[in-house]
DNA sequence: CGATCCGTCATTAATGACGGATCGGTGCCTTAAT
């Protein structure tokens, strides 16, 4: 960052955001953008990633376009910015009426910040309008969604590179909290930001979170309830089933008299918002949730995250447990594991990928594919057909994809059953080492874990990224 | 894998036992036809 930019940024940091100091990683990310580099920013949850793109926007010319995965996230950000005095901000999404939308599109260049979904960016009226706008910075928030959702769930995430190119390849910043090197490579490839790229990477480890695993034998509810005798909220309990989330919230209310509610995709937008804001305002102590809950939850004092079911990947697990102890004052991640729990995940994985017959059927009937519903098998087939990738090659890639998912799940099983340091297992997946061995690290390192647990998190950058991950996958191929 | 849902059958006609089928998680966006 030039001296002039540096001073200017510092002044804005104070005037617009009220801070005198940067938090870890922020200054590097801001400098990267101001030097005109594309950036891939990976900072642990709760370290202020929004400032990384908002601050340089005030120095850069033109509009900042922020691609965001969730409408609720956009709405929260817009509201927050408005209450901080920023008027020139808008979210372009399906909450708007037709006339509102066209009004906003007409004067889109007047806005400094525009939030938008990947899907909305596929509408030709929108993209045509944006092409005539000077985009000073293109931001991809929660960029791991490209890899996590792109292939089977939200295919428009994989079209962001094309969008960027149609917008004239503006300066780009991708932000995430958890991405292994392979995911980062995919983000870089999809967005096509390899040239002039600056990676700002911080470790994913959260030493202030204690890692506990409880082996269960047909007594999960009892183990859960007794854990709640020790662990006091606010807290989140994650499930892989909506029905069980509902049922358990009821159980906790009845047995413990704790204010608990469930949260999943069956809830209306209004109920989701209501429960979320009650939780943030400490009117609810526990949320029993599916993976629908959490992104953008910025509550500093969540004290525990319990998993009733095994998550499908270390990424998911870290994202979910990372929601506790944002204030760094200590938190507990507890996994309730019973042999065979991985069955649900195996099933979900298999159901979401086409087998060879289904794929070749899609290839021979590609003309009809347009009319089919948007399930994940169709999405994947459609993706490869649209890319004009030959059938054999597509099948190879799907097999790789499946192997990767299996590897992720296998890591989680190892995490659940191993007798070795659990933090080491989790971090080695991200090619990280346990930086500081703390008393009470995990269920393996300390026989009987107890509260309080509030170590100081070290502030040390670590950047040795070998290609260990690829080696591990290669090993799996040979098995 | 395991739970649960649904239809069928059998038997002191309204329940219950059985087995086969189905489902289990994430969200954008719907401007047309009754």
Automatic annotation (TrEMBL):
Residues 30-197 form the Helicase ATP-binding domain. GO terms for molecular function: 3'-5' DNA helicase activity; ATP binding; four-way junction helicase activity; hydrolase activity; nucleic acid binding. One of its GO terms (biological process) is DNA recombination. SMART domains: DEXDc, HELICc. GO terms for cellular component: bacterial nucleoid; cytoplasm; replisome. Residues 220-370 form the Helicase C-terminal domain. Keywords: ATP-binding, Helicase, Hydrolase, Nucleotide-binding. InterPro entries: DEAD/DEAH_box_helicase_dom, DNA_helicase_ATP-dep_RecQ, Helicase_ATP-bd, Helicase_C-like, P-loop_NTPase, RecQ_Zn-bd. NCBIfam families: recQ_fam. This is ATP-dependent DNA helicase RecQ. It comes from Alkalibacterium olivapovliticus. The lineage of its organism: Bacteria, Bacillati, Bacillota, Bacilli, Lactobacillales.
